[in-house]
């Protein structure tokens, strides 16, 4: 809740006229509690998990119209019923775990100093903080992910997420409830270290989930704008991790590729790509065409 009754009072406090964005923020948030604003995260997560994967569902249904060449594992085909079942499982986890966690975590958000007042952060401040959040989350997530691929972590927790050996957008948050809780820690560390405005926090939560949906899409589209982000892994990179499954000791990073490169956990993926390149150069296997990344279910290609 803002400590101002009018826009003029807010302008006097910050020493200038409010921007258009700040005026909109004042009109929306002035009489709303901070807890109510934080509660928006639940709505955003529900909308993202429900809406963002829908174009991928459509693409999966009309693969024969030219989209099949972008499918990373083209031999795998999912029915609408199977995808909807994945969505229902994710929503059950959302209702039973994610939603309640959001509701009870508000005190920690206030403790670290996430603010809701005026002025709003500048665009450059938002970009800088989001960059820090992505870097911190990516590094800490890398090590947690490696732990989850140990014998105990995989058998007791992480194997649930790997039930989808050819992932789809709805499967991004599909996981054991304990994994959902554990991986919430890396997502919270960035805002805890460099706290900003609630608007930035909203953007962080939204962008991180959209990124996860993209990397689990199962499609390697050449027009994806994230291709221009340095060291970004993308769908092809993470799809290999799911393809190998529980044996995987490669491609642990959630967003970028630098950790896997530094610690040598991308060797299996690089070997795999090298073999595929030789296969494609030698002959057209299974009708492979340019523009997509293709996996072939042979044990040799899984070796790391």
From TrEMBL:
Keywords: Membrane, Monooxygenase, Oxidoreductase, Transmembrane, Transmembrane helix
Protein's cellular compartments: Membrane
Domain Fatty acid hydroxylase per the UniProt entry, residue ranges: 131-265
Gene Ontology biological process terms from the UniProt entry: lipid biosynthetic process
InterPro entries from the UniProt entry: Fatty_acid_hydroxylase, Sterol_Desaturase_Related
Alphabetical list of Pfam families matching this protein: FA_hydroxylase (PF04116)
Transmembrane segments: 35-59
Annotated Gene Ontology cellular component terms: membrane
UniProt keyword Nucleotide-binding, yes or no: no
Domain of life per record: Eukaryota
Alphabetized GO MF terms: iron ion binding; monooxygenase activity
Family: Belongs to the sterol desaturase family.
Name of the featured protein: Methylsterol monooxygenase 1-2
Organism field: Hibiscus syriacus
